[in-house]
Structure formats: structure tokens, C-alpha cells
Write a structure and sequence with these properties.
This protein is mainly beta and about 200 residues long. The chain is about 10% helix and about 35% strand. The chain contains two helices and 15 strands. A hairpin with a 4-residue loop joins strand 7 and strand 8.
Length: about 200
């Protein structure tokens, strides 16, 4: 029995050493802009994008390229990064605490997402989550609520009226499943009462 325990212990010890050897740690000493990482995303070119508390980072497997907030319209909107995703045109949608920046990988420049609804409402301030569905619609969860941008129409919609009968609160979490259903979580409403919306329905 002691021999079996010893063999098991040695096996676990060796396996632990193997795992330790395979893990490489990256931080601000490695070129990362900040040690507090908020989100990760791999684009269609294979780059790993790291959103941090202070800067956007592009990692090629060896080095980090850091992008920080700038005053020009061709620079990042702000340096607090919450979410990153990519659309069919390879444009990166970057959620910050001061709105959305769009990154063009071909020109390596940024632009601001400044679309307005028919009521002159804009997506601004803290952006929690961005999803792009199979119909290329962009779902944007902000501190002001849920918005959907329809690229084919170049129109932005505020979805507050769609779930207003259920709650007076703006959603705090969003998830899109593979069937095209959006799940919205609201404060003070239990998980079993999450509201789903079929995105195939016309606006």
C-alpha cells in the first residue's frame, strides 16, 4: 500500500512540475500595459488582444503592442477596456468606460462609434458587453441599457421599450446563445426569471 501511495505521489508531483513548466506568466514587466486584465480576445489573424485597466494590448506570441487613449479621432477612446469582439469586416469593437472604439486592422487606426437612434440617443459612457450575432447585428450592453446596431441599415435601436413591461431596470448582463436568443439579466429579478428575446423578430 505504501508503495502505491508513493508512486501516486511521485506521479502527481511530476505532473505538477510539467504543468508548471508549461505556464508562462506575462505582466507589466513583459510589456503588458497593466497587470489588471479585464478581457481577452483572439482575432481572425491569430493575434491575442488583451484589454486591461490601463490600455489595449495586441500580443503576437512574443511581444505586446500597447494602445492608449488619445485625443485624436483616430486613437483609442479610453484606456479602460471591458470587452473586445470582431465583425465580419475584421473590424474590432472595443468597449471602454467612455464608449466604443472601432479598430481597423488594415489601416491600424481607431474611430469612434457615434451612431444615434431616431430619438438622438447615443451609446456612451460605460460599455459592459458587445456581442455580434449571426445576422451581423451588434448587441451593445451599456450603463444606459441595451442597444442594437443594424449594419445593413446603418441604424441604432434602443431596446428599452421591448422589456419595459417586465421591469423598470436596465439589464446588467447579456448572453446570446447559438440559436439566436438573447438572455438578459436584471437586478432584483432571479435567474429563473431571465428574459429571452428572439433576435429573428423584426424591430
Amino acid at each position: 500500500m505504501r508503495k502505491i501511495i508513493l508512486i501516486l505521489f511521485l506521479g502527481i508531483f511530476c505532473l505538477g512540475n510539467l504543468w508548471a513548466q508549461q505556464i508562462k506568466h506575462y505582466n507589466n514587466n513583459s510589456g503588458l500595459s497593466h497587470n489588471t486584465v479585464m478581457c481577452l480576445f483572439q482575432d481572425s489573424k491569430g493575434f491575442i488582444w488583451v484589454g486591461t485597466k490601463n490600455g489595449l494590448n495586441r500580443f503576437d506570441g512574443h511581444d505586446f503592442k500597447v494602445y492608449q487613449r488619445g485625443d485624436s479621432i483616430n486613437e483609442l477612446r479610453n484606456s479602460m477596456i471591458y470587452c473586445i469582439t470582431e465583425d465580419k469586416d475584421k473590424t474590432l469593437w472595443i468597449a471602454t468606460d467612455k464608449g466604443i472604439s472601432l479598430y481597423d486592422p488594415f489601416t491600424e487606426t481607431f474611430s469612434n462609434f457615434n451612431k444615434q437612434t431616431d430619438k438622438q440617443e447615443r451609446v456612451d459612457g460605460f460599455i459592459n458587453k458587445i456581442y455580434i450575432d449571426k445576422s451581423d447585428r451588434v448587441w451593445i450592453l451599456s450603463g444606459d441599457g441595451l442597444f442594437i446596431y443594424q449594419p445593413s441599415e446603418d441604424k441604432l435601436y434602443n431596446m428599452h421599450d421591448r422589456f419595459a413591461p417586465y421591469t423598470a431596470y436596465a439589464p446588467r448582463a447579456l448572453f446570446l446563445d447559438e440559436d439566436g436568443t438573447a438572455y438578459l439579466a436584471f437586478p432584483d429579478i432571479g435567474l429563473s426569471n431571465m428574459i429571452s428575446m428572439e433576435i429573428k423578430q423584426p424591430f
